[in-house]
Amino acid sequence: MTVVIWTANLLLDIGLALRRLNLMTQRKTADENGSQRDVFKKELIKIAAASCDLANAIHWFPMENFLWSGKLKQSTVGLFGTISSLLMLKQII
To answer: To the nearest whole number, what is the mean pLDDT of the chain?
Structure first.
């Protein structure tokens, strides 16, 4: 059950970040200090990290034959986790 909640949370996070990016591109306000570009980069990093986590969440999904649940190699799962962790560290730094 917790994997299902985790997956739903990741999907909502990705959707919210995509919505923010959409609103930012619609406004198209130029910012002299580049803060809008920084926010744009952070949202892209957030989407990429959440996508890696989503791939892992679906792999650990309890239902068999649901997308790729249980079908990824352990090295792929580890790679997705490592990429997600590095992206989150990049976002903090």
So the answer is: 89
Q: Model pTM?
A: 0.85
- What is the tens place of the pLDDT at every residue in 29-52? 555 556 788 888 999 999 999 999
**Which band of pLDDT confidence, cut at 50, 70 and 90, is reported for residue 27?**
confident
From CA 31, how far away is CA 60, in angstroms rounded?
42
Here the contacts of 15-21 (C-beta below 8 Å, separation 24 or greater) are 17/43, 17/46, 17/47, 17/50, 18/47, 21/47
Please state, in angstroms and rounded to a whole number, the distance separating the CA atoms of residues 67 and 41. Answer: 29
* Tokens linked to 62: 């309890």
Residue 27, CB-side half-sphere exposure with 13 Å CA sphere: 12
Region of 69 please: left (phi>0), alpha (psi -120 to 50) or beta.
beta
Q: What backbone phi and psi angles, to 5 degrees, belong to 73?
A: -70, 155
